[in-house]
Amino acid sequence: MKDFEDIYNAYAKQVFRICLGYTNDADKAKDLVQETFISVWKNLSSFENRSLMTTWIFRIATNNCLRHLEIEKRKERTLLPSNLMLDDTTGKEDQIQFLYKCISELAETDRIIISLDLEELPQAEIAAIVGLSHSTIRVRVHRIKDKLKQKFQEHGQFS
């Protein structure tokens, strides 16, 4: 899977969902995906197989997202109402939008953890990406899911 196009096709959708979890903005997420794969392209020859390709790519993506969030914090901006994109229907698309909105409100590390968990990465791999122990990841995933479930119940999206 050394061919860049194969790598891009294999991981772009997952990287997009991770970035969307950080930004809650599809256009910004697309930009972050591009930045991630530019970094992958530039550094592919130096990838040493010390970790899985997914771990390496998702770490680049999370670093890009964290850098983006840090830059955004420094900018002055007018915020749009957070419920602008949501309506009160309970359709699947609305639930997905609400989920990403809720994820974007989590603390940075929790966003990384749950985004990677939603991509069905093994918790041991998430631990390697985040730099926490496997048992800590297991506990954090459980707590994050409880928080998200509570937000869904409060919003009437989940019974």
Automatic annotation (TrEMBL):
InterPro entries: RNA_pol_sigma-70-like (IPR039425), RNA_pol_sigma-70_dom (IPR014284), RNA_pol_sigma70_r2 (IPR007627), RNA_pol_sigma70_r4_t2 (IPR013249), RNA_pol_sigma_r2 (IPR013325), RNA_pol_sigma_r3/r4-like (IPR013324), WH-like_DNA-bd_sf (IPR036388). Coiled coil: none annotated. GO terms for molecular function: DNA binding; sigma factor activity. It holds the Pfam family Sigma70_r2. NCBIfam families: sigma70-ECF. Belongs to the sigma-70 factor family. ECF subfamily. Keywords: DNA-binding, Sigma factor, Transcription, Transcription regulation. Residues 7-71 form the RNA polymerase sigma-70 region domain. Residues 99-148 form the RNA polymerase sigma factor 70 region 4 type domain. It comes from the Bacteria. It comes from Mucilaginibacter ginkgonis. This is RNA polymerase sigma factor. GO terms for biological process: DNA-templated transcription initiation. The keyword DNA damage does not apply.
